[in-house]
Amino acid sequence: MSLQIFILGVLNRAEHHPYDVKKMILDNTDNVVNITDGNLYYNFEVLTKKGHIEKVQVVQTDNRPEKTTYRITESGKKALEEEIYASFKNAKTVLSLYASIAFIDLVDKSRLAFLVEEAIEKLQKRIAMVEDKLTTKIPDGIVNKPQRYGRFIATHTLDTLHTELKAYEALLEILRSE
């Protein structure tokens, strides 16, 4: 998941401080994302230096660390859109798209659908290639341990690719229905 996409997307909806964003990430990913405070604050700093977000207010309360509230800039809104498209274009798995999927309402869904269609075509080609390897007949009596292990790996790869394909097809259906 791209932390910067998630930060920009959240700030596109409202002003927040980093702790709020961290809580939203954990709540929206069922705590499966490992996010450290250092990583979170580093990404806020990077986005601030790029001019994609800016500080709005710093509040200091008794015996508490100061809270800095941020908002997205116009540059950040453009960067968010570009990053969402780039993530779909370069996605290796549906899992890598989680942050972008959370904010697809901010971009052109037909453009995303086209990118998902391309991903589906690539997956179908990979599936065909793995299936071809699995259906290659090994002469009787020649199956050795490395070949058995290779078949196990190819079968697992094929199962994983089919799962990814189903997820991409479901995502495409969602994009087309809106």
From TrEMBL:
This is Transcription regulator PadR N-terminal domain-containing protein. Residues 7-82 form the Transcription regulator PadR N-terminal domain. Pfam families: PadR (PF03551). It comes from Paenibacillus radicis (ex Gao et al. 2016). PANTHER family: PADR-FAMILY TRANSCRIPTIONAL REGULATOR (PTHR33169), TRANSCRIPTIONAL REGULATOR RV3488 (PTHR33169:SF14). Gene3D superfamilies: Winged helix-like DNA-binding domain superfamily/Winged helix DNA-binding domain (1.10.10.10). Signal peptide: none annotated.
